[in-house]
Amino acid sequence: xxxxxxxxxxxxxxxxxxxxxxxxxxxxxxxxxxxxxxxxxxxxxxxxxxxxxxxxxxxxxxxxxxxxxxxxxxxxxxxxxxxxxxxxxxxxxxxxxxxx
Length: 100
Hints:
single chain
């Protein structure tokens, strides 16, 4: 009987160890996903800040309008709001430079 009890204890122990390992793995996966998400968001925010700085440098006279359109495009999930405003400004600059 002791060998049967010993096997049952080993099976029970191995099931507990497997259960603990599975739980640790699931925690690690959730943590990895959280870190991945955080990194992607930080990268997106950094890119947005750099884009705003570039707008201010390249279009000093129109930077307020373009920054507003940029933020509205992000909020509304429509990049066309920004690209249309940028295209209009470029067209105006081209018309003014060609008529001079």
